UniProtKB/TrEMBL annotation:
The keyword Transmembrane helix applies. Coiled coil: none annotated. GO terms for biological process: bacterial-type flagellum-dependent cell motility; chemotaxis. InterPro entries: FliL (IPR005503). Its main location: membrane. This is Flagellar protein FliL.
Length: 192
């Protein structure tokens, strides 16, 4: 009788676990995202002469493939070994004799985690004014400008014409760049 009192709770827990992990339906993760990947808005607007002598001012955004990012991904890692060595040469006019003896004996102050960039090394250089962090942004901008100057104002004013322009841009991006784009958006437009 004692054995049954012990076996029944264990059996109930085992059956509950089996139901939870094997037979129960997984929890609904919610609706899938409407946009897959990062949306990157080119920071500087385009102002171009169109084929028919009019001007267009517009903004363009790129929708990257899932996993492709506009900027290098930074990861924070703790310092290796727990101690940090500082070169005294980096401190102006400081030498070992300039440090009071009491502070030489104390434990080093905690060091904040450092940022390590993908590929190692230093952070990427600051882009020129009006440009973002996308590595091949100049090439992307050149393609957009090239396609826009070959477009008439009536094409930009119609939804069908903008769709055709987006398709041409996407084809050229795939053919001429390493940027992994699956959609091009024209976010703002003015034609005069």
């Amino acid at each position: 009788m004692k054995n049954i009192k012990i076996i029944i709770p264990i059996l109930l827990v085992a059956l509950g676990g089996a139901y939870k992990f094997v037979l129960a339906k997984p929890a609904d993760a919610g609706p899938p995202p409407k946009v897959e990947g990062e949306v990157y808005v080119l920071p500087k607007e385009f102002l171009v002469n169109l084929e028919d002598g009019k001007f267009a001012k517009l903004s363009v955004a790129l929708v990257f493939d899932h996993g492709f990012h506009s900027a290098p991904v930074a990861a924070v890692t703790p310092p290796a070994g727990g101690t940090t060595r500082v070169a005294l040469a980096s401190v102006p006019r400081a030498g070992w004799s300039d440090i009071p003896p009491a502070s030489r004996r104390t434990a080093p102050a905690p060091v904040a985690p450092r940022t390590v960039f993908a590929g190692g090394g230093a952070p990427p250089p600051k882009p020129p004014d009006g440009y973002g962090v996308l590595k091949q942004e100049a090439l992307i901008r050149a393609i957009v400008t090239d396609e826009l100057t070959q477009t008439a104002s009536r094409e930009l004013m119609s939804a069908k014409g903008r769709k055709k322009l987006r398709k041409h841009l996407l084809e050229r991006f795939h053919k001429e760049t390493d940027v992994k784009v699956h959609d091009v958006l024209i976010t703002d437009i003015a034609v005069q």
